[in-house]
Structures
1.
Amino acid sequence: MFHKKINEVGNPLVYVFLSLMVGCIYYGINEELMGLAIFIVASFFICMFYYCGFSFSCIMSIFFIIGVLINYSYYKVPSEINDEVRITKVSSFGIQGEFEGKSITIKTNRKDLKVGEKYKVAGKINRIQDKVSGVVGEVEPKFIVKTNDDLITKLYNVKRNIYYRLEENLGERKAGLISSIAFGYSDYLDAEDKDDMNNLGIIHSISVSGLHVVIIYGFFRIFLGSKLGIILTGAYVIFTGSSYSSIRAFVMLACVEGAGILKRNKSSISTLCFSAIILVVYQPYCIFNISFQLSYVATLGIIMYNKKLNEKLYKMPGKLRESLSLALSAQVFTLPFLILIFKNFSVNFIVGNLFLAPFVDLMVITGNILVITYIWPKVFDFCSYLNLYIIKAFDWTLDIIDKVSLPMFYGNEYIVLFYFFIMLSFYFVRKGYRSFIYIPLISILAIAIQIYSPILNISYYNEGAILISYRGERVLMANKNQIDIKKLSEAAFATEYYREEKLIRIKDIGSIKSQGKNYILETPEKKYLLKMTSTENESKEYDIINFKDAPINRIFVISGKVV
C-alpha cells in the first residue's frame, strides 16, 4: 500500500476534493481550534499515505495547500470599500451584500435596499468575519447609491413581478408557494407551508434543488434535445439564484451528457466530486454550509444505495419501487445531519415523497411556463389558473395526509452516535466480521452512561439555552421567549425545562441563577459567568465561560471547578 503507484489509485477526483475540503476546514477552524485542525490534517494524510502511497499523497498535499490559499485569498479584504455591491439578503438580522465575489454585511438602517439590486457603497470595512457563512467583513457605509440595473438585477425584477402578478390572480399564499417551488423566489413563502413540508420530509421541494434541475432538463431534452437542453438548464440555474444543489445537479448533468456525447466512461462518484471541486473553488466557505452538505450527502446516498434498494424491492410495482428506493437512499446519510443540526427528523418522508412530490414536480414545469408566458398577459392568466387547480389538488392531498401523519421525531447527538454504530456494525458484518454485531449494544451502554451523567456537565445550545445534566436529571433552562423550549427539551431528552427561571439548585454541587440573559454558576470553589450573549458587560467578579462567542458548547464540573 505504501508503494502504490499513482496510476493504481482509483477515482483520483475523490481525493482531490477531499484534499481541498481538508484545506478549507483547516483554514476555517485553525484560529479557534488549532489542535483539532492539526489532528484532522494529520489523520487525513496518514490515511492517504497508507492507502494511496507516498507519491500520490505528495500530489494531494498540493491540493491541500491550494485549499488553504483559496481561503486566504477569499478572506483577504481591504480596509475600505468604494465599489459596487449587490444585495443578496435582507432580513431582521441585517443586510448582506456581495462584491468581488465576497460576502459582506452592511451596517445600515435603510429599509429601501432590495435583494438583487446593485449599489455604489463607500466606507470602512471592519474585519468581523464569519467563516461558516463566508462573511469577510462588516461595512460602515458613508453613502449607498443605487446604480444601473444589470442582467442579474433584471432577472430578480422578473421574478418579483411574476410573483406580484400571481398574487393578483391567486392570492398571497398560493403565489408564494408556486414562486418558491418553480423558480426559488421564496421571499413571500407562507410559514405554515414551510412547516407542513418539513413535517412531511419534503422541505427541499419548496426551494430550487437538484431535483428541480433534473425535471427542467428532462422537459427541455424531450422537446429540444440534450445540447440545447443543457444550455437552457444552465440559464434556469442562473435565473433561480444558483443554489449549491442546483449548481451541483447542473455540473453533474453536463458531465454525464458530455461523457455520453464524447463516448467516454462516466463515474457518478467522480462526477459528484468534480461538481464539489467547482463549488469549493468558487465559494470555499461552502464546506461549512448545511445546504451544501445535505445536497451532497443525499446525492451520495442515492448513488450508493438507490440501485441496491431498487433490487431489494423488486416485488413492488415499478413506479412505487423507484420512488421509494430514491426516497430511502437519499435519507441514509442525511438523517444524522438533520438530527444533529435541526434536532428533528420527519418519519413521514416516505408518504410525502410518494403522494406530494408528484404535484411538486408538476408545479416545477407549470410554474416555469409562467416565466415563458410572462410577456403575454392573457396566456399568463390562463397558466395561473392552471396552477391554481394543481395547488388545490396539492392542498387536498396534504390535508388527508396531515390527518394520519406521525409527529416529528426529535433527537440529539446520542441518536446520531447510535446510528453511526449501527452503520459501522452493518458494514463490518457484511465484510464477514461477525463479532461487530455487538457494537450497537455496547454503544447503548456508553450512551446511557452519558445521558445519566455521573459527572455534572452543562451543555450550550445555539438557540440560546443550557442543559444541566447530573445523575439522571436533565434540566433545560432558557431566557429567550422566541425559543420553542418544548421542542428543544424533547430533542435534549430533558426531564424538566424552565423559561426565565431565577434559580436552580444542584445537589452537592451548588446552583445556577440567571443574571439578565446570562447565568451564574456558583460552586463551593468559584463563581462562573456562563455568557449567553455578546451584548452584556462582563464582570471581573467571575471567571468567564463564553458559550456565545467561543468554540465551547459543553463544560464539566469536577470538585467544584470547571474543566
2.
Amino acid sequence: MTLKEILTGTSSWLRSHRYEEAGCCQPALNDDGLIACGFDADDDFSDPRSANAPSDPVVVNPVTSLNHHDPAEKLHEGINRLVDQLRQVNEHLNCQLAQHEELMDRVRDLPKSLESLPASVENQRQLTTRLLEQMRSTSLKDQQFIDAVGRIPQETARQTDTLTSINHQLAAAADTDVQLAESFVKFKGTLDRLNHNTISNTEGILQMSRTFAASDRYLKYVISKMNRRYAWTLALALTICAGVVSVLAALLFFLAS
C-alpha cells in the first residue's frame, strides 16, 4: 500500500464520519449516549461519493451529565496520532528514497571504480608476490633461528663442561694459593726471626766495634808512648856512641902523637 492510497482511505473515513473542527462539531447521539454513526456497515469508503451521501436522521435523546467534547477530543487525538504516524511513514519513505538515490549514484560510479580494478588486482598480485617472498625469507630466517636454538643445549652443555673444568682448576689454584699463603706466612716468620737475630748481631757488632775502637785508642796510646821511649833510648844510645867515638878518637889522636 502506497502513501497515496493510505491518505485516500483516511480522507474517505474522515468524510464518512463528518468530522469538523473542535467546538463546531454537533455529533448525533444514540440511545446509549454514544455518537451515532452516519453510515452503514455496507458503505464503500473507497468511493468518495459515498461519503457525501446524506445519512438518515437520528433521534437524539438527552443524556444526563455527559461531556460532549470528550469523544471529539479523543477522535481529534487519534487523528493527530495518525497524522504523526503518517508523517513518520513519510519521513521513513523520504529516507528510503534518499538512500535509494545514494545507492543509484554509487551504482553509476561503479563502472568508474571497476576501471581501476585490474590495476588494483595487479598491484595486489605484486604485493602478494612480494609478501610471499618476504614470508619465504622470514621462514628461512626462522628455520635458521630454530636450528640455532636447537644447538643452544649442546653449546650450553659444552659451556657447562668448560665452566666445570675451570671451576676445578680454580679450586686447585685456590688450594695452591692457600699453600703458597701458608708458605709466605712461614717465610715471614723466618724473616721476622732473622730480622730479630740480625738486630741482635748488629748490637753485638756495634758492641765489638765500640770495643775495637777503645782497644785501638789504647793501642795507639801505647804505641805513641813506646815510640817516645824508643826515641829517648835511641837519642841516649847515639849520645853514648858519640861519646865513645869521641873518646876513641881522642885516644887514637893521643896515641898517634
